[in-house]
Predict the 3D structure of the following.
Amino acid sequence: MSFSEQLKKDFTTFTWVLIAVAIALNIVVGQLVSLLKLPIFLDSIGTILVAVLAGPWAGGLAGLLTNLIWGAITSPVAAAFAPVAMVIGIAAGFCAKYGLFRNWWLVIIAGLIITVFNAVVAVPIRLYMFGGITGSGADFVTAYMLALGKDLFGSVVVTVFTSNVVDKVVTALLVWVIVKALPQRFAARFPRLATAG
Amino acid sequence: MRASGTTLFVEGQSRLHGCHPFSKLFFIPLTGVAAYVEPGTVQAAVFLIVLNMTLAAAAGVLPTAWKITWRTLLPLALFMLPIHGFLYPGNHTPLFSRQGLTLYAEGLRFAGTILAQLAAVLSASLLFVLTTHPADLIAALTKAGWPSSIAYLLGSPLLMLPAMRDRTGVIRAAQQARGLDSGANILGRIRSLPPLVAPLVLGAFAEIEQRAIALELRGFHSSASKTSLRRVPDSTAQRLVRRLFLVATVFLILYRIMI
């Protein structure tokens, strides 16, 4: 199947509404979880859900727009990380395409892969735009690595990886649980699920 | 669309409010390139901050812009100045030393530069966000030939948010009534995630079909051009300025690469 045919098949009106709902979910779940005071954010749960259900391009679009809209709601700083959210969606979509959302340990591997791609894009933004510090608890890791004598780049890589790995694995597992719980009638709308789920 | 309350937009009648959304949008990358790439100095960043804050004052959004800038940059500064001051790898000129802790000039200079650059980009983005009604941006995008689906994705999450926030409260209350303990230890709190998140997601998904049918009925996929109730004023002068912003952005990047 050609690329444009695949896109046409992925982006039905149903998918567009799914992406809109997922963007709202990212924002609301992110706020809900911050109340629980956990070291995770879950603010990419909608993005990864869309990626599993409707493919990498829909997932990437959901991630990108989530952070842009977030920039208009809370603070424009969120918009600076929009490319990161987009890559999370694309990476999750490809993980699902190659069958990594089939059982729990494959899902953990998918979470790790997503963390790696997340770091590839997040590290340069954090390093060059923010000088390695973003004003959150994760900065203590950066400070610790710097104190150990690592250079700024190495410290930021370690920080981004450690502060995201639990979040992305837990998010991927939650998405897997939710996709399994989807009603048949709903799941049947997404041909991609036949290979992913 | 009710935007105030959900987004940061501040109602107003100023010239900046009346500017075309794209004009304000194109100013952000230009500020970013000027602050970070070429000239990329503290002086350039400070000049841009003063310029943007003056524009914000003229548009009557200075109090909000000022508040958000501080709310964003203060935590950053609190982490950045000590971490880089003490630990920046390029440190070698000690400024001040007590009990084995030494504050260095290079780290402080690096942190100060980054903070000024961030403040410049932040103030330019705030000019856009605070003075542009989301509906104006969406109308402008549609008029410029962007697909209606992108316009839908930018607009509808803003409208869904309040209802979804309400539902979050209901779900939390319902699960707590069933014995969910959101004050438990960390493992207990992780375990409380699925019963909170799954109903929210499944409930939101249940509406998708109805929304999709409603959109189809209103010609969502029709390629015929639609008339918008909102008119976004534009002018030849503004179109020229936008093109200038774009050319200047590209020029500064090329200038840096070539020289």
Notes: The first strand of chain B starts at residue 94 and ends at 98. The mean pLDDT of chain B is 88. Chain B touches chain A through 68 residues (CB under 8 Å).
